[in-house]
Amino acid sequence: MAQNQETKQNPSEPKPCLSGRGITKVFGIGNKATTAVDHVDFDFNEGEFVSIVGESGSGKTTLSKMLLGLISVTEGEVRFQGQPRDISTGAKRREYWKNIQPIFQDPFSSYNMFYKIDAVLDDCLNMRGYRNASKEERTRLKDEACGFVNLKYAELTNKYPFELSGGQMQRLMIARIFLLKPKILMADEPTSMIDACSRATILDMLLKLRDEVNMTVIFITHDIGLAYYISDKVYIMEHGKFVESGPAETVILNPKADYTKRLINDVPKIYEKWDLDTVARK
Ligand SMILES: Nc1ncnc2c1ncn2[C@@H]1O[C@H](COP(=O)(O)OP(=O)(O)O)[C@@H](O)[C@H]1O
Ligand SMILES: [Mg+2]
């Protein structure tokens, strides 16, 4: 019954892109078992910028790896575009990876050491089905992707990723995403290992992917202040559970859970930029 209602969706209503029901991950067995993610439910919609916020050890990376299909789900169901996700074979998993792509925390570990930048970008074009495109067309696409992240393709072709700065390497990761055009970008603390100046640029580019490519961006962070500025929706994670979720404004300006209040109190400086009236009324 509920399913019928879902299919009769109004086009202006948000369309679920990635959903989870009762998603759980238990590492180890017996009295050594750790429940890293504990029955979480969520609906990430198309074109939405969603942040998952929690302290270190709360289960954010474990959840992102399950959603990427890099580790198994102990219990629960992942749905992609309204259908149960099926990654039971290598071919199905590769198909799924056309739709969801990651950017990790450590830009240095994200690249194959022996691959030049041109080869990194060529791989993306091959994955998108441009294997037989002309050299000119391929160069045009690579040039456009580098332009999207303010890098100059002509200056990069013969370099290795490790010849770039950390911020430039993360921008190159975003250029990859721009070429691959997945439906979902999973960005796990992508700015925590780079300088503050590059950080703002990276955040800007993630927002641009959402705006110009209509990508669903899942942004993982321990920084609730940052989440407030950039997200449409936030999910607050504590000990493997979502303790609170909703529009960023609602959750952060009017937190209900003690844990959310504590996260906010840990970054008092962000109050200065907030609407103090709204905060004071609580
Ligand atoms: N491969 C693993 N084996 C056992 N325990 C793990 C593994 N990966 C993560 N954990 C545990 O799961 C919990 C959540 O970790 P993680 O998902 O990395 O949190 P976060 O990304 O929020 O810092 C932690 O207690 C961590 O020690
Ligand atoms: Mg993590």
Strands, helices and their partners?
Layout lengths: L1 H6 L8 E12 L6 E12 L3 E5 L6 H9 L6 E6 L2 E2 L5 H8 L2 E4 L13 H11 L7 H14 L4 H4 L9 H15 L3 E5 L7 H18 L2 E6 L2 H7 L2 E6 L2 E7 H6 L4 H8 L10 H5 L2
Parallel strand pairs: 3-8, 3-9, 6-7, 7-8
Antiparallel strand pairs: 1-2, 1-4, 4-5, 9-10
Helix pairs in contact: 4-7, 5-7, 7-8
The protein binds adenosine-5'-diphosphate (ADP) and magnesium ion.
Magnesium ion binds next to α2.
In short, what is this structure?
The protein is α/β, with parallel strands linked by helices and about 280 residues long. It has a domain at about 15-110 and about 185-280: P-loop containing nucleotide triphosphate hydrolases (Rossmann fold, 3-Layer(aba) Sandwich), CATH 3.40.50.300.
Describe this structure in words.
The protein has 282 residues and is α/β, with parallel strands linked by helices. The protein has a domain at 15-109 and 183-280: P-loop containing nucleotide triphosphate hydrolases (Rossmann fold, 3-Layer(aba) Sandwich), CATH 3.40.50. The chain has helices spanning 2-7, 60-68, 90-97, 117-127, 135-148, 153-156, 166-180, 196-213, 224-230, 248-253, 258-265, 276-280; strands spanning 16-27, 34-45, 49-53, 75-80, 83-84, 100-103, 184-188, 216-221, 233-238, 241-247. It has a 6-stranded mixed beta sheet, with helices on both faces. Magnesium ion binds at residues 60-61. Residues 27-28, 34, 36, 54, 56-62 line the site of adenosine-5'-diphosphate (ADP).
